[in-house]
Specification:
With 554 residues, the chain is an all-alpha fold. The chain has 22 helices and no strands.
Length: 554
């Protein structure tokens, strides 16, 4: 009978469990929840900002430390790998030392490592300090989300997640612009020094304002009985799985994917570690130990679908955040700062929309909000697929704002759906896994854009170059006209002479731009189809109970 209760979310647990859950729901923080929310959002905003702010500074970092551009990309890879490993493991660590203490340790490590990154005298040391920064930063976002989920009552949780959404959705959008401005006007090291005062302020406020709920304190006491016994094998498997995945996604296109023995090695290492990790975590559950990754959450349909939707949100947000600046800089000739200005108004749009969606989420079925969000996102990508090389700055800003209006309607409802029917003691697990889905989705989106751009550009060039031959009268006629325009004369062979070579080079350059434009449009169309495919998935989400609490259904 007990097994059936665990497997069916809709059944009731024995009476003692219900009393405990009721006691937990009745708990309220001593400080105003909004002050708690603002406190924990501070450091999280800086952490998410750091995932994108260093992108535009890479050439400066490479030049300043005497490294190549390819070597400098390890500054990004190291951070993402460390981040991905800690995200799902944060909930496990919380059960041993408490959520508040874990959050403060992460803030402290993030602040110290940020200062060390700014002082780094060489690239290897900078990469090492970025790993430490990624470890510290990886625990911030899921801890904040779990704190907000427990601090606010269920009917106000959407508004709380709106503030959290500002940190994790807006920060990547404004990161490149802010990073470019700091690098151009000051020095790339200030990108890292900027975090230090914010972390000190966050530490002070967190120590005074944030508190652990009773059930977290109970978990810590239970876990520390007989001494702290960490699951080192599980942690090693987790690190190998997600560390390898991040490495493959970040370095795949650069090393030509499976043509590289290193990429192939990490791919098989990831698959083997992933399979063994699932077996080990399920075994830990069977013997009554606390697993590092709570796989039982995936038995809940609302969480499993929420995980997929959060992956798609990360894929779309980070994928287009990379795509648009690259497009305007390589094909339209925009400066880095102007490219950032294309994205910035969309960040302001999301800042304005988040509180509105937070308010609506307590009044409207989250599935309807997600349906609207994915519809708007699909339509925005459909409109973006009509872009051309003559597109204006204003049109680009409008298209990005249109897309942001859809993204704003996704983040909060997806998080709310993921928490329905989950025990309050599992809120850390939910936040860790949903943040992992967003991060892995972002890495996949970035890798997808880089890979498809190279391959589709090459495919379009192969098709177009067939017409650029002396046997094509239209091509010969075009060269002749351009030759005259470049100062050559019409006599003799129209395909010979310096002016003819200049004309052919000009035509080839235009062909390369056109092929690149078609490749960008292909990528946008694929992403549009991908987002449209999420709409039918919404019908499989169970109808959420009104003002559902985290323990609803237990």
């Amino acid at each position: 009978m007990a097994t059936t209760t665990l497997d069916l979310p809709g059944t009731d647990l024995p009476e003692p469990k219900q009393e405990t859950a009721t006691h937990h729901v009745a708990w309220k923080p001593k400080i105003n929840p909004w002050i708690v929310a603002m406190t924990v959002t501070l450091a999280t905003f800086m952490e998410v900002l750091d995932s994108s702010i260093a992108n535009v500074a890479l050439p400066h970092i490479a030049g300043g430390l005497g490294a190549s551009q390819d070597e400098a990309t390890w500054v990004l890879t190291a951070y993402l790998v460390a981040n991905a490993v800690i995200l799902p493991a944060g909930a496990y660590m919380t059960t041993f030392i408490g959520r508040k203490k874990f959050y403060m340790i992460c803030v402290l490590l993030f602040g110290i490592s940020s200062a060390l990154c700014g002082l780094a005298p060489s690239l290897p040391l900078l990469v090492f300090f970025r790993i430490l920064q990624g470890i510290g930063g990886g625990g911030l976002a899921p801890s904040e989300q779990a704190i907000l989920a427990d601090t606010f009552p269920p009917e106000k949780r959407g508004q709380a997640f709106a503030m959290y959404g500002l940190a994790v959705v807006v920060a990547p959008a404004i990161g490149p612009t802010l990073g470019g401005w700091i690098t151009d006007n000051y020095d790339w090291r200030w990108i890292f020094f900027l975090n230090v005062p914010i972390c000190l302020l966050s530490l002070f406020l967190t120590s005074r304002i944030v508190e652990d709920p009773p059930w977290v304190a109970d978990q810590v006491k239970e876990s520390q009985k007989g001494g702290i016994k960490l699951d080192f094998l599980g942690f090693g498997l987790l690190g190998l799985t997600f560390g390898s995945l991040e490495f493959i996604l970040d370095k795949g296109q650069e090393d030509d994917w499976f043509s590289s023995p290193l990429i192939t090695f990490f791919f098989f290492a990831m698959i083997i570690a992933f399979v063994i990790m699932i077996w080990w975590e399920l075994r830990q559950l069977r013997v009554g130990h606390r697993p590092i990754v709570n796989l039982t959450l995936f038995k809940r349909r609302n969480f499993a679908i929420g995980f997929i939707l959060m992956f798609v949100l990360g894929f779309s947000l980070y994928g287009t955040t990379v795509l648009i600046p690259q497009f305007v800089q390589t094909l339209l000739g925009y400066t880095a700062q102007l490219a950032g200005m294309v994205l910035s108004p969309a960040g302001l749009m999301m800042m304005a929309m988040m509180p509105v969606v937070g308010f609506l989420s307590s009044k409207v079925d989250p599935r309807k909000l997600m349906g609207y969000g994915f519809t708007m996102l699909t339509l925005a990508l459909l409109l973006m697929s009509t872009m051309d090389l003559q597109i204006s700055y204003g049109r680009l800003v409008f298209l990005r704002i249109f897309q942001a209006s859809g993204l704003a309607f996704l983040f909060i409802p997806i998080n709310m759906i993921a928490y329905i029917g989950v025990k309050q003691s599992e809120s850390n697990d939910v936040s860790g896994l949903t943040n992992l889905a967003r991060n892995i989705g972002g890495s996949c989106g970035t890798a997808f854009v880089a890979t498809m751009l190279t391959r589709r550009t090459a495919a379009h060039e192969t098709n177009m170059i067939r017409n650029l031959t002396p046997g094509n009268p239209a091509f010969v006629n075009q060269v002749k006209q351009l030759k005259e325009a470049f100062g050559g004369h019409g006599g003799g062979n129209p395909m010979l002479g310096d002016a003819a070579h200049t004309a052919q080079a000009w035509i080839y350059n235009q062909m390369h731009r056109q092929a690149g434009m078609l490749a960008y449009l292909d990528i946008i169309q694929y992403m549009c189809i991908f987002c449209a495919c999420m709409l039918p998935l919404l019908f499989f989400i169970p109808k959420p109970p009104k003002n559902a609490s985290p323990s609803a259904g237990h």
